User: Fold this.
Amino acid sequence: VAASEMWEPSNAFVLRRGPYVISAVMDESSHDRPLTLSGLYVNLFEAELPIVREITVRPGEQSLLYDLEAADARGDGIVAASSRIEEYEERDGRISFVARGPTGMQAVCRLRCPFEPSSAVAKAAAETSVGDAGARGAGSGDAGTSGVEAGYAGANGMETGDAGMGKAGTWLLQMEWDAPTRTALIRYEHRPGGVRIVIESKS
Assistant:
């Protein structure tokens, strides 16, 4: 066996499934060295779904990452969310979807955008009716976006604040834009019946 093919014992497991990278480092093994992974990841074990370029996994720890540079990583759309996402639609410089989860729970969603967003607004999904402009048919579309006003969110990490209720019962959401990865992080609260979130293009 050539020297380059020699097997070396390791205290770490690394498993890749599509864009997902799972790792674990054993605390009872041949050595106690940590595992370091470098790349461009979303850390799925962190509540804020941060972008990380290097992560160290120590003995007794595990990690679950989404590799933004993987060949089969999503070009656009939801990367990860602490909600059930339904009715996702992207068209005409607007992204719309419904987020559902336990009422009152604070939630986050990170998604890749084909444009730089200007704002993210929300409306209770239960308030959506067929009379709204752009109402959905047969369970799809961007219903409940009537009267949404685009407020300037800023780029490269600037946030929109909660400005209270707006037109047609909408409210601004906190949003962070990461230009290098073209991902937006949206913060919101689950409400009965779900929350419809609309992201508007800056241009």
Q: What stands out?
A: The longest strand covers residues 35-43. The CA atoms of residues 120 and 199 lie 4 Å apart.
